[in-house]
Every structure is written in structure tokens, then in C-alpha cells.
Amino acid sequence: MLTCWFHRRMISANLDAGRALSSHVQHHVQTCPSCRDFYETSLHIGERLAAGARHERMPSPPFLQGRILAALSQPQPPPPDGLIRPAWAATALAAALVLMSVWFWRDRSAVPRQAQPAVSSSQGSALAVELVVAAARLPAEAKFREWGQKLDQPLETELKSVLHDARTALAGLAHSFLPDHLSPMP
Q1: What are the tens digits of pLDDT across the range 8-61?
Q2: Rounded to an integer, what distance in angstroms lies between the CA atom of residue 29 and that of residue 7?
Q3: Is 39 exposed, middle or buried (0-12, 13-18, 19+ CB in 10 A)?
Q4: Full 3-state SS string of 35-80
Q5: CB atoms < 10 A from the CB of 36, how many?
Q6: Boundaries of domain holding 147
Q7: In the chain, how many domains are there?
């Protein structure tokens, strides 16, 4: 029963913490035979574990307390000023510069320079757009649409499955809970 599960968790928590049971839990233990057995068994196991632990306890080595206190009284080194130590900062800066130079060199070598003929302003803007697209190596608009459709296919399939499952569940609920004259035909 759900209330027994809840009360058993409360019994375990109180016994583990060494606290007394609340009046509500005590009342439940008195009225529920299975929870009373659980309480008595848990109490017995706890007492046996505590008794066994007393026999296993070993004395601490001499001078242990003195060594601990001496270690605590020594001054601690101050933490570093910043989150990043100077050696790591220099290494990170060098790595960033190398990556940026490789990226810049790769982009410069990927787009060959060509001499452009003189064009009018309207042709120039169209040519500028074409050059930006070519420089950025963007695919055509049709390719973007194709990618969008391919990305949407699993979502559409999943939505169709969800709708089918919802309709099936509603039909099953209607068949189970509505009278036959009100239930929709399958």
C-alpha cells in the first residue's frame, strides 16, 4: 500500500538518524501489522550492527591528534590571484594565435583571386552578392530547401505516429468507458 511505503521510508530515516518516530508514524506502526514487523526488524538489525561495530573499533594511534592539530595550525599557502595561471594563459594565447592563422591562411588559399572587369553599379551589386556567396561557399537555395525537408521528415513521421497513438488510445478509452450507444465505431 502506498501509505505503508511512505511510513516505512519515514521509519528507516528516523532509525538511521537516531530520532524518535513522530506520533503519526507511531500510530500507523501500532495499527499496521506489516509496518510493525518492519519497524521491529529494522530496530533489531540496527541494534545488532551497532553492537558488532563496538567490537570492531580500534584504538587510534598515539600522537594522531597532535599531528592533526599541528597540520591545522600551519599557515596555508595563499590561493593564486586569478583563475588562470600565467603559464596556462600564455599557452592558451599561443594556441589561439596558431588556430587563427591556420584558419586565415586556409580561407585565403581557398578563394583564388581573379581580375574583375569594370561593371556598372547595378551589375556591381549583383556581382558583389555572387562574390559573397561564392566566397562563403554557400549552397544554392534549392539545396537549403532539400536539407530542410530531409530534416523535417523524422519530425513529421513522429508527429504522425503520435497522432495515430492518441487516436488509438482515445478510441480504446471510449470503447472501455462509454456505453455502446455513445461509443464511436472503430
Answers
A1: 999 999 988 888 998 989 999 999 999 999 999 999 998 888 888 877 777 878
A2: 8
A3: buried
A4: HHHHHHHHHHHHHHHHHHHHHHCCCCCCCHHHHHHHHHHCCCCCCC
A5: 14
A6: 140-186
A7: 2
